[in-house]
Amino acid sequence: MTATKAHAAPLESALFPPNLDVLRYLPWSAPAASSAVPFSNDRWDLRALDVWPAYATHSQYTAINWATIKNPLWRITAKEVGLCLMQPRVGVEHHLPDVRRSGHPPWSLPHDRVSYWRRWFTFLDEQGVRSLSQVTQGHCEAFLDTMTPASRDIAIRSLRAFADYGSLLTHDAYRAGFRPWGNRSALAATGQRDARSYANKTPLIPDEVFAPLLAAALFLVQVAGPDLLAAKRELDRLRSAPAQRGVPGDRRVDEALKGYLERLRAEGRKLPAAAPRSRRRGRDICRTTIALNIGVKDPDVLLERGRYEVIQQAADTLGIAGGGILTEISRVNLADGTNGAQPWRGEFSPDSVVSMTRLIRTACYIVVAALSGMRSSEIAAIERNSVKREEFAPGIIRRRIQSTLLKGEPPGGRRETWVVIDEVVQAIELAEALTTKRNPLLLSEFAPSYTNFRSWVAVHGGMAGLNPIPEDWNLVPRQFRRKLAREIGWRPNGVIAGKIHLKHISVATTEGYAGRHGESASAFQAEVEHERRQAKAAAVERVVDAAERGERIIGLGAASLAAAIADAGLADAGDAPQVRDRDDVVGTLMKARGDTLHIGPLAHCWFTDPRRARCLRGVADKTRPLVGSCEPTMCANASIHREHAPVWLGGLESLKASLSDRRIPAGERQRVQQKIREVEAVIEPLLAEEEP
């Protein structure tokens, strides 16, 4: 390494020659015919490498722009470190202790290193630092304060690279023996909890956003998607049909136009309107769409005086509206039941087929992301015809998807299999039908696609009975995986279960996976189990809180639960004197009862004695309760708490509402009335506590 000097000629590296072909120097393959990428270039285009994941095909990933580092001395220093990171052989051969032993993924280098180096050098320049040898720990900590908390560990690793490879650098490096934050781990240096603590920093999508989002995505996949495919087939048929030239006086064109207009009258349809951008005075009718429907090559032949007069007269009687593709639109019932079943949209037009294709591909992505547990990079890597049907056990069918696992793998990743439910398969197959791309779920950018999706729901979703999606939430793909794990672990009867049979997802993500530790499926299972443990701990804590407040617990399992609370440290659950540290009480009760707790909508199942489980009568496998078959008023393992009262009240209101139907037979009416009395008897003790 030499001291910092002013150089009239371009700086050169003593570590790498200027004509070194970076593309061939890296530990991955590139076609022999691809152009060389000299080390001296300030832009390295690496797209020819064979390791790019599906989502990283844009130039922001495939090209490294070193020119963004303004200082030429620091620029060549960064280039040396960048190439060392991607080619680990350099550090290994020089016996450097703290360097990478595997190649840094080239697609993440611009974002995870170069962007931080650019900001680091800009910061040093503003501080009057002209050489890395002048850098102190104070400079490093001041720079870290300019970073967001979530990016600080990446910033620390980026700054340390100049210390780890310092002995190899030609023109500038930190002073000998200096390494930012020493040998502390990057997470520890930021003050964050260690990754092994399983702290998930990904924001949890709130229900008020997720419920309408999932409902809209499922509607577009399950209802709108088939309609769009039918419209695309109709449009393709019209475009591929032999077309007439339509010269003046061609009676075939006139007959076809007459038949087309008669069909519109018979079906109560309007003439297709021109797109707003192409409308001119007196030309609001879309001649292109009419020409398609009557098999005419040139729409201008419809301007022939006699023909256009016929079209104008039809427009006066029928009216005009956007559309023109005469595919039948599915009818839906609005949520409030008003107006009966009506089409969820007007007719398709050639333009709307294109826009709806983009929209429904976004919906396919959302369904897969929300209900599969796959990471965004894994979804993007799904290729055509990747869904396989497999008999997991006699009579049990599983659907598996093959994709590429990237996280924790060398660049290029490796093939992996995920087990998914039918709704995910439907979304993937629909996406395949809507595009000819190799990766049907690959979106160029999620943010603008999601913005358009949300805008469509707000403007047009009302016709389909959809609720608007709140705009005050910054949705990113990684949040879907966290939300699914949370719903499975905490709320088996929550938002997702309202749209999808959640048990199917839970089974698919537990029975279906047989992955090794560290794989995506196994990691998702671990996340689900972590959320389940957290949910159980929170439920036990609520039970202790309620006991401390003297709230009543009812059900056949209430007495044994009250005894367990007393044994844990509350001498009397009714008076709830504090005799032990509250955390000790929760911990003791968790050890005694936490593993047996199954959270249900109507009651908590404390599965302490399988022989007493009402739901398992006649069932051979008694290892776990059938929560969906719970009879909480008749099971000795069940306890009903105040938090369950809203669900009981909702069921009670539904029973009472059913009595207003005069068609109910007398015997059935008596049965419903008896059920109402039973439910009222159950919840009366809970409701009595709420009365002043």
From TrEMBL:
Please indicate if the UniProt record lists Electron transport as a keyword: no
Keyword Membrane attributed: no
* Gene Ontology BP term (one): DNA integration
Q: Which Gene Ontology terms cover its molecular function?
A: DNA binding
The protein's matches in InterPro entries, at most eight in alphabetical order, are given as: DNA_brk_join_enz, Integrase-like_cat_sf
Keyword annotations from UniProtKB, A to Z: DNA recombination
This one is known as Integrase
